[in-house]
């Protein structure tokens, strides 16, 4: 007697029909989600490269692409934070205007070649160019941290600090000890640290110790599942500044870290940074920006946040004209990107750029290429090794166009070169926290000093020359010998560069 074989479950008509129906519904839902998100991408009217990158991701990565776009594709600060930013921006500009009423630089103090940049910065941000400043360029990390400690120890009224990263260990702990000692003797100490960048610090015993001593510590841009539903999770406070008694200020590329104790296992060497110590009216601009950031994070009004902290900085024994340019998602116009392009287009003889991460937008690349082609000597100094696989290969994808145009690409081999600087014609300097990448242009809260001063530009140029001497030139012939696999990875990641 033949054995009756059971009907395979996978061939049961009901099962087959159900699987087919579910598959059809999933496919239809993917099409609807893709169309809906794609319409949203198109209607945002961003640079074509950014929009196309997101459209490709949304179309070819089912569901996950749409989720990533909704989480990271736009720049929402959250309804309440956006409202605070808009309501407090003009009061911040008015407050700064009161502090520096008699210090706005005259037309004669800014060379004519750079007047368009000054006017563009005025219109895009509203922070004026200020005269009568003295700057000291510091490029040794231990010297920088010792100088900050000395100024905190001399503080009589207040210390205001904001950083992306505070990493415990070494000389960074000496800064913490100086702050605690200042707070105990009655100095008002406020510290604003990014919640993610300073993750190691927030998990350490230092927050408890400093708070107990009287230091007012706040997390900037905290993250969490609930917040992610209302605000992008990857917006970061990337600013770095110190203000002491409203008379001394610091800004530049250095996080509050001792490089001997920071990311020693990343395989890129110690981080190499520079800071500017500032005296003069420009310190009031640093102070005003800190108070605006403090108000955003604490939900205080700017008036409440600045109570007792509005004394104007005194004129310094110097003639440098400085203009502070804050940037970030709270600023609706991408003024800093326009300023960078304007500086590149304005250069007539020489342009030197240093940055750890080089993933620019297409118009900036075009401006750099055009500068080299019209006879400007252009040098780009970047680290030979960086701590991000994606950024490293996306950066490399731009080198061919630069080398073919005559740009000198120099690979710094003395560590991770972290200094962010531009010097044009030995006269104009951009210096601060801004990397030459799209993330810094659009997503990070940054601060950049435009310095209209030959003396500072010359000293910064000398520092750039030191970096160049510790670098290896990249040649076009060498670059053209890359394997197909290397070129494929780089070009693929270049397509993703608007998303990095």
Tell me what the structure shows.
With 500 residues, the protein is α/β, with parallel strands linked by helices. It has three domains: 16-72; 79-324, Endonuclease, Chain A (2-Layer Sandwich), CATH 3.30.870.10; 335-499, Endonuclease, Chain A. 45% of the residues lie in helices and 20% in strands. It has helices spanning 13-43, 48-60, 64-72, 79-99, 115-124, 141-153, 171-184, 199-202, 206-213, 225-228, 282-298, 302-305, 335-346, 362-373, 389-396, 399-405, 438-442, 454-469, 476-480, 484-496; strands at 130-138, 158-163, 188-194, 216-220, 236-237, 241-244, 248-252, 271-272, 275-279, 320-327, 350-354, 358-359, 377-383, 408-412, 416-417, 420-424, 428-432, 436-437, 444-452, 471-474. It has a 16-stranded mixed β-sheet that branches. The protein has a two-stranded parallel sheet with strand order 8-15. Helix 7 (171-184) runs parallel beside helix 9. The longest helix is centred in the N-terminal third of the chain and has 31 residues, at 13-43. The model has no long low-confidence stretch (mean pLDDT 87).
């Amino acid at each position: 007697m033949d054995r009756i074989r059971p009907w395979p479950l996978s061939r049961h008509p009901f099962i087959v029909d159900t699987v087919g129906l579910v598959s059809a519904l999933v496919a239809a839902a993917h099409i609807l989600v893709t169309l809906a998100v794609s319409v949203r991408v198109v209607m945002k009217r961003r640079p074509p490269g950014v929009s196309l990158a997101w459209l490709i991701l949304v179309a070819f990565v089912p569901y996950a692409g749409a989720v990533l776009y909704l989480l990271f594709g736009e720049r929402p600060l959250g309804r309440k934070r956006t409202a605070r930013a808009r309501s407090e921006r003009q009061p911040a500009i008015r407050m700064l205007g009161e502090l520096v009423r008699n210090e706005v630089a005259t037309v004669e103090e800014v060379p004519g070649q750079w007047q368009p940049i000054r006017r563009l910065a005025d219109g895009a941000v509203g922070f004026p160019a200020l005269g009568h400043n003295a700057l000291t360029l510091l490029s040794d990390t231990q010297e920088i941290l010792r100088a900050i400690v000395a100024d905190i120890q001399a503080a009589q009224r207040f210390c205001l600090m904001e950083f992306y990263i505070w990493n415990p260990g070494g000389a960074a702990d000496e800064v913490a000890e100086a702050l605690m000692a200042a707070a105990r003797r009655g100095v008002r100490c406020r510290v604003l640290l990014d919640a993610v960048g300073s993750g190691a610090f927030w998990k350490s015993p230092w927050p408890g110790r400093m708070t107990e001593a009287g230091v007012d510590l706040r997390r900037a841009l905290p993250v969490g599942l609930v917040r992610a539903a209302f605000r992008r999770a990857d917006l970061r406070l990337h600013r770095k500044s110190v203000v002491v008694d409203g008379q001394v200020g610091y800004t530049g590329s250095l996080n509050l870290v001792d490089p001997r104790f920071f990311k020693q296992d990343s395989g890129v060497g110690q981080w190499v940074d520079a800071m500017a110590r500032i005296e003069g009216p420009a310190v009031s601009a640093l102070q005003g920006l800190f108070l605006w950031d403090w108000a955003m994070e604490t939900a205080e009004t700017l008036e409440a946040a600045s109570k007792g902290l509005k004394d104007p900085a005194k004129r310094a024994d110097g003639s440098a004209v400085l203009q502070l340019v804050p940037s970030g998602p709270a600023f609706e116009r991408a003024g800093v990107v326009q300023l960078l392009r304007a500086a590149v287009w304005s250069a007539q003889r020489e342009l030197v750029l240093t940055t750890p991460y080089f993933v620019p937008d297409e118009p900036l690349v075009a401006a750099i290429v055009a500068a080299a082609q019209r006879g400007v000597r252009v040098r780009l100094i970047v680290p030979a090794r960086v701590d991000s696989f994606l950024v490293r290969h996306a950066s490399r994808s731009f080198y061919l166009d630069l080398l073919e145009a005559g740009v000198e690409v120099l690979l710094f081999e003395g560590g991770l070169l972290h200094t962010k600087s531009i010097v044009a014609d030995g006269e104009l300097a951009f210096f601060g926290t801004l990397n030459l990448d799209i993330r810094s242009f659009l997503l990070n809260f940054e601060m950049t000093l435009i310095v209209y001063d030959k003396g500072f530009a010359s000293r910064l140029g000398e520092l750039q020359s030191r970096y160049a001497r510790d670098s290896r030139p990249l040649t076009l012939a060498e670059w053209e010998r890359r394997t197909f696999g290397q070129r494929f990875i780089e070009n693929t990641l270049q397509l993703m560069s608007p998303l990095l």
